[in-house]
Amino acid sequence: MTSTEQTSGADRRRWIALAIVMTAAFMDLVDVTIVNIAIPSIQRDEGASFSQIQWITAGYALAFAAGLITGGRLGDIYGRRRLFLLGVAGFTLASALCGFAVDPAMLVTARVLQGGMAAMMVPQVLSIVHATFPAHERGKVFGLFGGVVGLGAVSGPLLGALLTEWNLFGLEWRPIFLINLPVGIAAVLLGRRFITESRAPHALKLDLVGVALVTLGLLMLLYPLTRGRELGWPLWGHLLMAGSLPVFAALVWYERRKAARDGSPLVELSLFRVRSFAAGIAVQTVFGVALGVFFLVWTLYMQIGLGWSVLRAGLTGVPFSLAVSTAAALSVQFLVPRFGRKVLQAGALTMGLGVLLYIWESHRYGLAIASWQMALPLVVMGVGMGLIVAPLTDAILSEVPREHAGSASGLLNTVQQMGNALGLGLVSVVFFGQIADRLTPAQVGPAFVGAFQHALWWVAGVMGLIFLLMSALPKRPAQHVEGGGEPVEERELLTV
Asked: Main site of residence (predicted)?
């Protein structure tokens, strides 16, 4: 076989590997949003209490966020392909348990397991990309990743609406979980063949104390945020959130000692000395807050305020999804190499403009607004989001050494989940805080429309803050600096 044929075969294998990990990432993104649409059907079919319904969504989110950093580090130590395949297999098994759950308690338990398996699977996606593709090709790859993020965020509700309304084989809501089975099985079989193994080049050990501290701190912060509104924001919730700060301080102190002692900390604090990583993490957290607020209030506005069906609400989001996917692909392939950081800043301003346009249209048309009238602000917002999501990931990871790819990926996903949780917590203030406790049927629509507009002003303000934070990002990601070569780490051979 000639060297050209060998190169072509290797090139084909890595692009197939990319398709496999992207499919798994899409499966997780869809699963996060698909459940919300089917909640009424689950409640009717299973007789679930309100608390159990809350835990069907909250259990997944908590297990996912708490395990992401650990999942990333396990991939660095034991191999990213191995952890990815274990995560996909476990996620698929948990999906089957969800689909065949005989009561609400079993469904909640299976959802917690599913979130834990997603925490093992998802960090490996960016780590495998980081280790498989050279620096000069990652822009194109992260463009595809950004498109998948946009598509998954909006297609979940639409897919959930279709599967629930079709009531396939009389299974009601169960197909929203069972659809993961063929996808997961195919990902495991193909992943074993096409994904190349990689791990940190230096031997690392799992930091069990770090695992305990980061898990405890995240649960103390996220559990009250997740359940706070339902429980009426009790005092113990505020105490837990305040108590998370000294836990995180203890984590930083311990991780510094651990790094000095044996070089195997769970959280690689040296990453925060990389300017692009530190600044990007701050942007990612605040951006997660904006998305957490918007997507929840948008769903409530359409389905409760306007009284639209789940299918109509899902279809209304299609222009947004298409705009995100298109803009994400264009941004990293054509715009970022030429304009650098300005593309992300333009994305923040564009998304903020779309939010203001949405406020204006909602105020002008009120309860009579139509889906087609929402298309313009949604497209503008989608373009802005697409200009951010893919280049931001690229900027954050561009200067990260390969041996810490898993840790960096876990941190990146964790802060995004923390931002989303903070956004969901803010919804109780910026949205539900504007709605009276007792409403007549005639008052529901106007109240939800007004609350939606009020919440969007907050989202617009957050986008302005993101624009300012982006000034701390490097003008260009490392691989786009003219005359620069690949970092030393990128020339190292993969550990096979």
From this structure: membrane
Residue 385 structural domain? 271-475
Same structural domain for residues 181 and 44?
Answer: yes
> What does the pLDDT look like over 324-377, one tens digit per residue?
878 887 887 788 888 888 999 999 999 999 999 999 999 999 999 999 999 999
Q: Tokens at residue 109, please? A: 């338990």
Pair 287, 381 in one domain? yes
Q: How far is CA 460 from CA 89, 431, 435, in A?
A: 40, 14, 20
Integer Cα distance of 86 and 98 in angstroms: 18
Residues 388 and 246 in one domain: no
Q: Is the pLDDT of residue 221 over 50?
A: yes
- CA–CA separation, 231 and 235 (whole Å): 10
Distance, CA of 227 to chain centre: 20
Same domain, yes or no: 36 and 68: yes
CB atoms within 10 A of CB 82: 16
How many DSSP H helices and E strands does the chain contain?
17, 0
Q: Is the pLDDT of residue 157 over 80?
A: no
> Please, is 233 exposed, middle or buried when counting C-beta atoms within 10 Å of its C-beta (0-12, 13-18, 19+)?
middle
Residue 309: pLDDT band by 50, 70, 90 thresholds? confident
pLDDT in tens, 252-261: 999 889 888 8
CATH number, domain containing residue 294:
1.20.1250.20
Tokens 């041996």 label which residue? Answer: 403
Rounded Cα–Cα distance for residues 475 and 178 (Å) = 45
- Whether 355 and 382 have beta carbons less than 8 Å apart is answered as no
Q: Do 253 and 299 lie in a common domain?
A: no
